[in-house]
Automatic annotation (TrEMBL):
Molecular function, one GO term: uroporphyrin-III C-methyltransferase activity
GO terms, biological process: methylation; siroheme biosynthetic process
Repeat found in the keyword field: no
Protein known as: Uroporphyrinogen-III C-methyltransferase
Pfam family, one: TP_methylase
Domain Tetrapyrrole methylase, first and last residues per copy: 5-215
Magnesium recorded as keyword: no
InterPro entries to which the protein is assigned, alphabetical: 4pyrrol_Mease, 4pyrrol_Methylase_sf, 4pyrrole_Mease_sub1, 4pyrrole_Mease_sub2, CobA/CysG_C, Siro_Cobalamin_biosynth, Uropor_MeTrfase_CS
């Protein structure tokens, strides 16, 4: 039997309209779609009749052995000659474990393609009126995974605090107090602007703006939770001037 093919597709940051044209085409031709927790049902509706859906959502702090199971599903369905779409939020190669899945497919001789998606670290600030780079505010941006408490101390906080103008933290809400404390301890001014954007690009989006000194209190006061993106840097000052979602939603 001929092997099938796996498409590792980035679904974008939440708004189903932000998927790429090629990403949608992959969904439309899939025999099997293995999809994550935050995937919009509107995207799944593009699938053809008879498509098999496999849910593999990972709840925060409850990943368990699901990633290994995903690897096995990808190979199993592809060996049956099926067209498989691994549908992941954001971009599969930015904190999406797409690289691990591609490695597993390569090891088993399964053909695959990577279909990039719009990553939340850029899209969430954009929907909040915050450009992550700006000629007058920031010449560079760094993306950091802020979620796994057992690994967070691997971050070079001293270098991070001084080496980049804008810092964007994915999956950092559970550790936001720790993040702010480490940045201050390693040289960031406590008055550095910080924004937290919850449910970015969807009709549930909310944004709160403060500083390294105040943002923890503000997110607690307004009951912010995951999924959310944390943006640190002077570009956050542009939120009040450039916010546009509030004007159309």
């Amino acid at each position: 039997m001929n092997k099938g093919k796996v498409y590792i597709v980035g679904a974008g940051p939440g708004n189903p309209k932000l998927i790429t044209v090629y990403g949608r085409e992959c969904i439309e031709k899939a025999d099997v779609i293995i999809y994550d927790r935050l995937i919009s049902r509107e995207l799944l509706a593009y699938a053809k009749e008879g498509t098999e859906f496999v849910y593999c959502g990972k709840e925060p702090k409850k990943h368990g052995n699901i990633q290994q199971q995903i690897h096995e599903w990808l190979v199993e369905h592809a060996l049956q000659g099926k067209t498989v779409v691994r549908l992941k939020g954001g971009d599969p190669f930015i904190f999406g474990r797409g690289g691990e899945e591609a490695e597993h497919l390569r090891a088993h001789g399964i053909p695959y393609e990577i279909v990039p998606g719009v990553t939340a670290g850029v899209a969430a600030p954009a929907y909040a009126g915050i450009p992550v780079t700006h000629r007058n505010y920031a010449g560079g941006v760094t993306f950091i995974a802020g979620h796994q408490s057992g690994e967070r101390d691997r971050i070079r906080w001293d270098a991070l605090s001084q080496a980049t103008d804008t810092i964007v933290f994915y999956m950092g809400m559970a550790n936001i107090a720790y993040i702010c404390e480490q940045l201050k301890r390693h040289g960031k001014d406590e008055h550095t602007p910080v924004a937290v954007i919850e449910w970015a690009t969807t009709n549930k989006q909310r944004t709160v703006v403060g500083t390294l000194q105040t943002i923890v209190h503000l997110v607690q006061e307004h009951n912010f939770s995951s999924p959310a993106i944390i943006v640190v840097g002077d570009v956050v000052q542009l939120h009040d001037k450039l916010k546009w979602v509030e004007e159309i939603w």
